[in-house]
From TrEMBL, chains A, B, C, D, E, F, G:
Sequence similarity: Belongs to the GroES chaperonin family.
Function, in words: Together with the chaperonin GroEL, plays an essential role in assisting protein folding. The GroEL-GroES system forms a nano-cage that allows encapsulation of the non-native substrate proteins and provides a physical environment optimized to promote and accelerate protein folding. GroES binds to the apical surface of the GroEL ring, thereby capping the opening of the GroEL channel.
NCBIfam families: PRK00364.1-2 (NF001527), PRK00364.1-6 (NF001530), PRK00364.2-2 (NF001531), PRK00364.2-4 (NF001533), PRK00364.2-5 (NF001534)
Name of the protein in question: Co-chaperonin GroES
Molecular function per GO: ATP binding; metal ion binding; protein folding chaperone; protein-folding chaperone binding; unfolded protein binding
Subunit structure: Heptamer of 7 subunits arranged in a ring. Interacts with the chaperonin GroEL.
Gene from which this protein is expressed: groES
Compartment(s): Cytoplasm
Length: 96, 96, 96, 96, 96, 96, 96
């Protein structure tokens, strides 16, 4: 991956629904945010706290993550679609 | 549970009304937020404070908790419905 | 009381108007928030400050408190109505 | 006074216009907030700063204070009308 | 002056346009805030920072100051009109 | 200059378009803020940080600066038009 | 480059679409922000944290960066179009 996200951002490759983790994620309630699943392909160096300390990313490259569909910014890079989002927009890591 | 929530988030499995704690929770006033009851099935590692200190979760796996119905994000995982929410959206723990 | 509020929250049992402290509390101006009186039945462990220090609750179980009617979340528990609110929504303690 | 305000709040008894300090306070511009004058009858223990330090109240019981008419919450207690407001809503103390 | 402003507030006596500093202050653009000129007649003890330190007022009694017309609260005291405003609403001091 | 701006504010004298730095600054997109160029004629003593430390101004008197047209407050002083704005509204210094 | 951005700002020269990194960046979803690619031509000295510490810029002159199209302010300087934006508006660096 040649995209290096800044700060506490990460680059995610969305997972096709057919490939989703056991049973996938379905949105039962339309007024709620739609969570989707993706694979982390790049992470930033972490958020800088008010005291100047750099906080390491909790999410690692290769993690499967769940995030709100409407968070982040979509980019197309080398013909592939990615999403750049902040770690605070990641709801959970799917452990295998 | 294979969902590992990030930061101060937790994963909750809503409790069916029939199974609610003695007498359950009823919303007497429709203009108020609707609190619901659920069981905590996974917790994050805790919120990071401005000084870099990680604050342990007050809520534990197995706790019965009350939270506002409109907080958090619903996910379906392995065919089950869950809610991922922040600990600050948890109103109270129901002690048994 | 089996409801254990989190953080700086407390559980209050509203006082019937007939039982109110000497002369009770009347709302003279309809455009203002309506303060009501209640008895504290449970308190959280307190708010965590930015430096990680836990601030003890100023309000104690058994206190009569005045709070804005529109703050907090109503719950019914064991057939009784309660209100869960933050200590910052408590205006004053009625000393006996 | 049996009302003990929490944090940086104070309880004020509004002063009748006829009793106002020399010439009283008149609102010349209707688009501005309306300041009114009152006497402080109770004060809280003070605001807690982010570092856990408690900041003593600048306003004392017995002070005449000027505050914005629309700030605070009105209560009736023992048949008297009071206002509970934050110290940050007090504009000035009238020195005698 | 018998008005003692709290915190980082100050009391200002507006200057009549005829008495304004050389050429006065004219508002050339109606969509901008209107700055006006006044003389400081009383100052508070200063703002308390998050670490509990009290920050002395930069503005002194007797200073000519420029401030936005729409900031602050007007009061009439002893038959005179004054404005109570925060030091952060003072744009500049006019040096003589 | 007899105007002494407070805190992190500065006083700027707008530069006529004909006198602008090589080619000047043109606004190609009307939905964007309009940046303009000016000369700094006075600076404040700097912003006070939360820890009480005073942060020196990065901008100096005599600097050519670019700032958003809609920031700050216009004043007329000694028959001249000036703009008082915060250093955070200064986008860049034009180095000669 | 004669524009010296202040604080954590940087000056970017947008890259023509024909010259974009392999396959460029395409916006697949119109409700999302449009990210664009540019080359960094100048950087500020960095953001000052609340403790007075200056945080060095993560982005360097010469970096290819991706940023949201609607962030920043456009300027024309020496006949060229540039964008001045904050480092926090930079989504990622494109590594070569």
């Amino acid at each position: 991956m040649q995209l290096k996200p800044l700060g506490d951002r990460l680059v995610v490759k969305a997972v096709d629904k057919e490939e989703m983790t056991k049973g996938g994620i379905v949105l039962p309630d339309t007024v709620k945010e739609k969570p989707v699943e993706g694979e982390v392909v790049a992470v930033g160096t972490g958020k800088v706290l008010d005291n100047g300390q750099k906080l390491p990313m909790e999410v690692k490259v290769g993690n499967r993550v769940i995030y709100s569909k409407y968070s982040g910014t979509e980019v197309k890079f080398d013909g592939e679609d990615y999403l750049i989002l902040s770690e605070r927009d990641v709801l959970a890591v799917v452990e295998k």
